[in-house]
Amino acid sequence: MTTTGGGSRQQSDDSALAALAGMSYGGWQATILSAAALIISGFSLYESSFRTADVEVFVPPVIRYARDSGGSVEVFAVPVTITNAGARTGTVLSMELEVENLKTHKKKRYYSAYLGEHQVEPNATNRSFAPLSIAGRETFTETVRFYPDGDALPQLVDDAGDFRFTLSLLTAEPSQPDLLDRYWHHAPAPISFERSLPWISDEQLGSRRITIAMKIKQPPPEPSAKAGATSNAH
Question: Containing domain of residue 113, as a range?
Fold first, then answer.
């Protein structure tokens, strides 16, 4: 009887320890899951409400070259798409376009003067460029017309050829930056791209106010295997 009683108490103790271990294991699981849920919730709140403005600009494969004021003032009409991946509003105060003639290696700066396509009528109403306020997770798309920043003459584009562009955005800084603005806010990086002007006509650019498409330079076609074999045969 004594032995039997001792065995029963031992079994009870073992059961109690097993139950305690199970409760302890379950408690750790609950703690880990709660911590993970808290981290995910905090990250979601940051992304949706507190993330600083994250502005980027994109340019399509085709831009246009034109002239104003009877042909003396160069104009680059550049379609742009500006995205804000942050949660806070971002403000673009102005844009700057630096253009390099890859044939002469001369450079010139142009500023964002107007919005919209180049006007065929010289007296048409123009929409002046104004600061762009882009809300979080929003996108802005429009054609920006860039005019010379300074003297219009001499002109940078005097012949067909290849040109390198560097587009920079000047954004507003918070007047009273908080901790996130101080450590996480950054200005958008300039983007560079090259386009080719296939031909040029001073008369048509000046009197007819046409625009000329500038496209991405296409690499020369590679010689085919058949052409190479024919050449070797000769």
Answer: 55-214
